[in-house]
Hints:
The protein is 24% helix and 23% strand. It is of the alpha+beta class. It folds into 2 domains: 28-280 and 507-535, D-Maltodextrin-Binding Protein, domain 2, CATH 3.40.190.10; 282-506, Dipeptide-binding Protein, Domain 3 (Dipeptide-binding Protein, domain 3, Roll). Strands 1, 12, 13, 14, 15, 16, 17 and 18 form an 8-stranded mixed β-sheet that branches. A hairpin with a 5-residue loop joins strand 5 (93-98) and strand 6. Helix 5 (301-309) packs antiparallel against helix 7 and helix 11 (464-475) packs antiparallel against helix 12 (479-496). The longest helix is centred in the C-terminal third of the chain and has 18 residues, at 479-496. The protein is globular. The two termini are 40 Å apart.
Amino acid sequence: MKKKFFHFLIWVLCIVFFISGCSKGNENIQQEEEEVPELKTPVAGGEIFLPVIQFATFNPIVNDNQSVYYLHQLIYEGLLKLDEHYELQPALAKSWSVSSDGSEWKFVLRDEVSWHDGKPFTAEDVKFTIDAIRISNETKNISIYSSFAQYIKDVKVSSPNEILIRFDTPLQNPVEIFTFPIIPKHQFNNVESVYQSLNIVPVGTGPYKIESYNKYNRIQLVRYDNYWSKKPLLSGIIAKMVPDKGAALTSVEANEIDVSQANDYDWEKFSSDKTINIYEYVTQEYEFVGFNFNNHLLNDINIRKAVSFGVDRHKITDEVYLGHATVTDAPIHPDSYMYDEEAQEIGYDITKAKDILGKSNWLNRDADEWLENEEGEELRFHLLVNDNNTQRIKTAEIIAEQLKSIGIEVVIQKANWEEYEKRLAEKSYDLVIGGWKFSLIPDLRFALHSNYLTSSNFIGYSNPEMDRLLEEAAAAKIQDQRIEIYKLIQKEFVKDLPYLSLFYKNSALIVKNHIKGNISPNYYNIYNDISNWYVQEE
């Protein structure tokens, strides 16, 4: 579990031509002819029940439980936070700046912030938190945030509300890493004791504080009246222990809790329940078809284009994922402020696919169904897929059937996970279905840069222009500059098609319908904007 959640955090905080037929994030998919009217004015007060899966510690620095991570966002805050478009916003830091080479960051902190126990928040707390995370890289202590401080050289407190952070590797340190939770220095003896304090009662600066705490039963949160920002409407939140996600959903049905994450794609069963609303959102889980550039046929952009136009990705999302996926032509999250809709140019067009192949002199020269070139070489590819993923196997079957209609034979090869990884490393495949859990801090070098040809760039893709753009994006510190570079990256990706981008998977938040407000979950924070949720009494 720890390894799985650690990867979740790194993916979260590290790394369309059209989207009809796909449910996009934050959309309530329950359609009813008569909707229950909401109150014109939200009413403050009331409490709701949230699930938390049984955990070992509530200490945010060493926690490895995803449900606790989400709950921590009600209690703790970072220097910065991400909004619904994964764009940075001020939090405990009201402003920040960076030196010209990117090696030094200066944060100016809010001076009106206090901890839940009444003590003032200062730059000393920020330094203490960073120092605690840094020792996770140097000792056997483990923090899910250790990579965030990996390249921090030193931290200097300039004043009670100003801190300077220096890196030993300039230019490639995204400011998004400063979303990790800040902990109070006065709650611990020293930085080493952070890792021994597994049973602490959390003290944060967030909108809710701990009223009572029983790690085996429930945690009572109450509104923090001295919160520096907008006060939440809900007066209380009770986190009830459940053994797993399935039990959380069952508890919603039994009216024991009010909110739960969906489990896989089973939330359709709630669509007819008038006591429940469903809020769908786009995850960071991205699926693709990779082209092996060591195959001389797939080195031909025309064949990659024909394959891309010959695959109906919306049919896959409808039949395999019940419509709960969002098609996109490039690996940038469709809700991200960096997403460029103008770069989305690939759509299902069987006529265009056939035309591309015909102009490239691929014709049916014999009595079978497959196209050949003048040398008699047939368009036949082996498609690798891991055999423990039912959705990918079904996706492979649909792709094989669709490409058959344009004269390309696809032979599906299923492999166990060990064999699948081995064949990727050995480049022993033609096409492969794979997936990544991307970061909210885009950095596609691992997949597309030629420096990674012997490791994570397993398809063998090399493009000097793409390398240049990726390096510029990694070095960009100004948001507008980063946006423009990522527009060019997306255009280059669609132009060159190193991968056939399939889609991002969707998930959903299941919510009892007496809870109202701006319920807009995202992958980074399923309780996004919970300060504006409220309870509508019957």
